[in-house]
Design brief:
The chain is of the alpha+beta class. It is about 40% helix and about 10% strand. Among the domains are: about 60-120 and about 150-240, Orthogonal Bundle (Penicillin binding protein transpeptidase fold); about 610-665, no CATH class. The strands form five sheets. The protein has a five-stranded mixed sheet, covered by helices on one side. A five-stranded antiparallel sheet has the order 7-6-14-13-12, with helices on both faces. One of its GO terms (cellular component) is outer membrane-bounded periplasmic space. InterPro entries: Beta-lactam/transpept-like (IPR012338), Glyco_trans_51 (IPR001264), Glycosyltr_51/Transpeptidase (IPR050396), Lysozyme-like_dom_sf (IPR023346), PBP_transglycosylase (IPR036950), PCN-bd_Tpept (IPR001460).
């Protein structure tokens, strides 16, 4: 009796200690909280239509999908073959453990496993494959933490997203794409039973390695599913006879299209979103970009068909939605494999006359109008601060040797007019205005800045023109709209505030002046600069071309699309061939026409603060019925001309327009300001 009492006391003590230990472990597991469920997996990049355009390439394919996006057949098949009591136990199936131990004793070796799905998931997430007691205890602790902090469905989701299915496919989504070229949610019963059998031994049960063994294991799984009540007998037979079509490769390829664009996106993930290299490559990110695959394809096709294979000319190209700054197409060079250097966002090149619209925006703000006139003639500028004399030249040294209007100066790209305007406004004005338009590269405060002698990037110039197109709202080149982590949580979203930064009225008057490069009514001592491509136009455009000895530009827009092209040699060699000089304009118009082919023709809508009047384009005065040419021209209200043209009539103007007496002749304003 004494021994029995001692045994009970000692037994009770150890039981109490055991219970305290178990309670302590459980409390500690609860205090530790939910373990992180992230695993290395591929990051995917999506176009604006939701299709995959690229992915990180780290040698393994991993894609995380939610529980509800996994086929119910696959979930049931996995539970049936791996852990039939999954929803009943709390991480450990003690009945199964005892049965496995008995089977091992009878066979005198390890013949049956007893790990639950929760245990296998813990092992996949955190632990090595060594078979020490320390590893087993740690695995058990992680299993407790999983069971205490996550639902069964969440654990099953994690397990199916981490197990290895062979051939570099980790997780059910990668496996579904590799074996059947479909998403995991679309798997049939036959396909699900086939996939569920692979993780036991991918090198044995992969249908690409041994179809017979894979088929036999599929049959076992289907029978088990029927026995457990997941499927009926008729479903079993139908699935067993289902003809499976195997794929054998991953459909998404790294940077399959738009490699220059993808490089920019990765750079933005680092600099704008603030992610490190490992997260970008292995974080299972879903990166939603602004790329329009159709526009990208058009841009690449136009580039290839326009530029001769024998030419060494390079290009940078950017297309953008002017309403929000979303970059819809980008080319950084003619061949990414030969040169990944991105000329659309990295190269700083002289923009030539494409800088003039920014100058003339500032001029319109300071009181200029489309009818403001100055002489186009050889002019030498002399400075009191010791700077050398400066004599700008027009293309081919061609001048009006007469007065021309601001509208003509822009359409004909008159350099003398531009330099005079820049000096009159003050050489810092254009620099400040360019910053307003989003130009970030450093610009020199010199008279020749009006002619684009300071380098800029293609993307920032396209952004500036987009602001002219959208009515003066702030936009900047944007490549990423949203980034999600592997769980689907949004970790970045584009939330730009498109504030009004330009004067609406002034901006609209400028945009209408920019249509002049395509309007022969503004021809004068030279033809308008868009003459060579007018015949290819099917809708209204506004734009500006620009040339230097080594650079050729064309930037322009319709209300719904802006595009810019730079062409030239990487080393800055002069462009001498006539064909090479025309590449930029031809690429631009061909892209715009094809990209907008199925889009409605939209007009530029004037704001309330502008008025339109018919003017004689030669002198900027109100046109009469005697003027051979008149052009509808927009002005800020109150700045429109009031004087009628008296050049094209033999009658005194007061006889023709009694209600508008002829004004007294005044000395032109520029002669009162400029001494030359």
């Amino acid at each position: 009796m004494k021994y029995l009492r001692a045994f009970i006391i000692i037994g009770g003590f150890f039981t109490a200690v055991g219970l305290i230990l178990v309670a302590g472990v459980l409390m500690f597991a609860k205090i530790q909280g939910p373990p992180p469920l992230s695993v290395p997996q591929s990051s995917l990049y999506y176009a604006n239509d939701g299709s995959v355009i690229g992915e990180s390439n780290n040698g393994q394919k991993r894609y995380w999908v939610r529980y509800e996006n996994i086929s119910p057949y696959l979930r049931d098949a996995t539970i049936a073959i791996e852990d039939k009591n999954f929803y009943e136990h709390h991480g450990f199936d003690f009945k199964r453990i005892a049965g496995a131990a008995l089977a091992d004793v009878k066979a005198m070796s390890k013949v049956e496993g007893a790990s639950t799905i929760s245990q296998q998931y813990a092992r996949n997430l955190y632990l090595t494959r060594d078979k020490t007691w320390n590893r087993k205890l740690t695995e058990a602790f992680y299993t407790l933490r999983l069971e205490m902090n996550y639902s069964k469905n969440k654990i099953l989701e994690g397990y199916l997203n981490t197990i290895y299915y062979g051939h570099g496919a980790y997780g059910v989504e990668a496996a579904s794409r590799y074996y059947f070229n479909k998403d995991a949610k679309d798997l049939t019963l036959g396909e699900s039973a086939m996939l569920a059998g692979i993780p036991k031994g991918p090198s044995i049960y992969s249908p690409f390695i041994s179809f017979d063994k894979a088929k036999k294991r599929q049959a076992i799984i289907l029978q088990t599913m029927n026995k457990l009540g997941y499927i009926t007998k008729s479903q079993l037979h139908a699935a067993a006879q289902e003809h499976l079509q195997f794929y054998g490769k991953f459909p998404a390829q790294h940077a399959a299209i738009a490699p220059y664009f993808n490089d920019v996106v990765k750079h933005e993930l680092k600099t704008k979103v603030g992610l490190d290299e490992r997260t970008i490559e292995l974080g299972g990110l879903r990166v939603y970009t602004t790329l329009d695959k159709k526009q990208q394809q058009i841009a690449e096709e136009v580039m290839k068909e326009t530029i001769s294979d024998q030419s060494d000319i390079q290009l940078g190209f950017v297309a953008m939605d002017p309403t929000n700054g979303y970059v819809t197409a980008l080319i950084g060079g003619r061949d990414y494999e030969k040169s990944p250097y991105n000329r659309a966002v990295q190269a700083v090149r002289q923009p030539g006359s494409t800088m003039k619209p920014l100058l003339y925006y500032a001029a319109l703000q300071k009181g200029f109008t489309p009818s403001t006139t100055m002489r186009s003639e050889v002019t030498t500028f002399r400075f009191d601060d010791g700077r050398p004399d400066y004599t700008p030249h027009n293309f081919n040294n061609n001048y009006a040797n007469d007065e021309i209007t601001l509208a003509q100066a822009l359409a004909l790209s008159d350099n003398v007019f531009a330099v005079k305007t820049n000096i009159f406004l003050g050489e810092g004005t254009l620099v400040d205005t360019a910053k307003q338009f989003g130009i970030t590269t450093k610009l020199a405060k010199v008279p020749s800045l009006a002619l684009g002698t300071s380098g800029v990037r293609v993307d920032e110039m396209v952004g500036a023109y987009s602001m002219i197109s959208n009515g003066g709202k702030k936009v900047e080149p944007t490549f990423i709209t949203r980034v999600e982590d592997y769980k689907g949580n949004v970790i970045y979203s584009d939330e730009q505030a498109h504030d009004q930064v330009l004067e609406k009225d002034t901006d609209f008057v400028l945009s209408q002046m920019m249509t002049g490069m395509f309007d022969p009514k503004l021809n004068d001592y030279a033809s308008v600069t868009g003459t060579s491509i007018i015949s290819q136009m099917s809708r209204p455009y506004a734009g500006k071309s620009g040339t230097t000895d080594s650079d050729s530009w064309m930037i322009g827009f319709a209300p719904q699309l802006t595009a810019g092209v730079w062409t030239g040699y990487d080393k800055g060699n002069p462009i001498t061939l006539t064909a090479d000089k025309l590449y930029a304009k031809n690429i631009w118009i061909r892209f715009m026409e094809r990209a907008l082919k199925d889009e409605p023709i939209q007009a530029f809508k004037p704001p309330k603060g502008v008025v339109a009047v018919q003017v004689d384009p030669d002198n900027g005065k109100l046109a009469t019925k005697d003027c051979p040419v008149s052009r509808l021209t927009y002005f800020k209200e109150g700045t429109e001309p009031t004087e009628y043209c008296d050049v094209h009539t033999g009658k005194p103007i007061e006889e023709k327009h009694q209600h508008k007496p002829a004004p007294k002749k005044k000395k032109p304003w520029y002669k009162r300001i400029f001494p030359w």
